[in-house]
Automatic annotation (TrEMBL):
GO terms for molecular function: hydrolase activity. Pfam families: Abhydrolase_1. PANTHER family: EPOXIDE HYDROLASE. This is Alpha/beta fold hydrolase. Residues 45-304 form the AB hydrolase-1 domain. Keywords: Hydrolase. It comes from Oceanirhabdus seepicola. Coiled coil: none annotated.
Length: 322
């Protein structure tokens, strides 16, 4: 672990629109993870896990409704994102490191038998945490995410294929990414762009129009390029830790609690690719659940359809007697 760790100045987060929540911090061996903890501590807990390049601001519309309905809501910021600390060495942002950080966070909270909503890297990390801490959750909602389960030869080939896609994409601009949203352009943009326009990236991956204040809030965690190591590195590590991810999948297949999938119809990465079916077919507790495709929603469906998401989550938790 490199010694150089940055903390985004608090004044970057002043007066954020619709984000009145109190900040909490947990020390993870010299690294501070920021998280929101709303609602009565005695109520059942729902975790909301975000991905790249977003942060807990993504859940600002969902949190108050869940709290009003009687749940405790915990929404952490991944290390390198949001208000959490940011190691500047990209090598610190390995897949296994993010799993370890989140695992430590979960274990130190000492909360078990909770529910969780996982999207993007929130799922890629959170699912592996669950595989190794099966009593952490009793209910799981999965949205617009994936977890690799590749065997032998594919585990050797996949990293090479993705590296080739990154390399051949050149140095994509925001415009070229808008024209063709695929893995190569996504990884190339985050690797090579001198300035990461996170707010504009979020707009490209939503169907609703974000306000300037909202886009500024997504830019807030990253005042200068020194802070970019987390979002820069994430696309590169998609196909790492494949042996451990495969092993974790085998553990997840034994996890029999209820699972709901809520994938978007307009996600340029995952829509109609069968990832929702992969979860439905591999989790025993997904059988017979009211899985749906959320319409008029892009990758960040929390922005596009927050009301529908919350309503479906609350109805499902009630139906499954959580």
């Amino acid at each position: 672990m490199s010694k150089k760790i940055l903390t985004t100045p608090e004044n970057r987060f002043l007066n954020l629109k619709d984000y009145p929540f109190e900040s909490h911090y947990m020390d993870l061996g010299g690294m501070k993870m920021h998280y929101l903890d709303e609602g009565d501590k005695n109520n059942k807990t729902i975790f909301l896990l975000h991905g790249q390049p977003s942060w807990s601001y993504l859940y600002r519309h969902m949190i108050p409704v869940l709290v009003k309905e009687g749940y405790r809501v915990i929404a952490p910021d991944l290390i390198g994102f949001g208000k959490s600390d940011k190691p500047i060495d990209s090598n610190d942002h390995s897949y296994s490191a993010h799993v370890k950080w989140m695992s430590t966070f979960i274990e130190k909270l000492e909360i078990t038998h909770a529910a969780a909503f996982m999207q993007d890297w929130g799922g890629m990390i959170g699912l592996r945490v669950l595989a190794n801490n099966p009593k952490w959750l009793d209910r799981l909602i999965i949205a617009n995410t994936a977890l690799a389960e590749v065997k032998s030869f594919q585990r050797w080939m996949m990293p090479k294929m993705l590296k080739l896609l990154r390399t051949t994409s050149g140095k994509p601009t925001l415009h070229s990414l808008e024209q063709k949203m695929n893995y190569g352009n996504w990884a190339g943009y985050f690797t090579h762009s001198e300035k990461l326009e996170i707010g504009n990236i979020m707009q490209l991956l939503t169907t609703k129009e974000l306000t300037q204040d909202e886009m500024d809030a997504y830019d807030a965690p990253f005042p200068t390029p020194e802070y970019y190591a987390g979002p820069r590195k994430m696309p590169e590590i998609v196909a790492t830790d494949l042996d451990k991810a495969y092993s974790d999948w085998q553990e997840l297949k034994k996890w029999s609690n209820p699972v709901l999938t809520l994938f978007s119809d307009k996600d340029p990465f995952l829509a109609d690719q069968g990832y929702d079916k992969l979860f439905q077919n591999n989790f025993p507790g997904a059988a017979g659940q009211p899985h749906i495709t959320v319409t008029n929603a892009s990758h960040f469906l929390q922005e596009d359809q927050s009301k529908e998401l919350v309503n479906r989550i609350l109805k499902w938790l009630s139906q499954t007697k959580f």
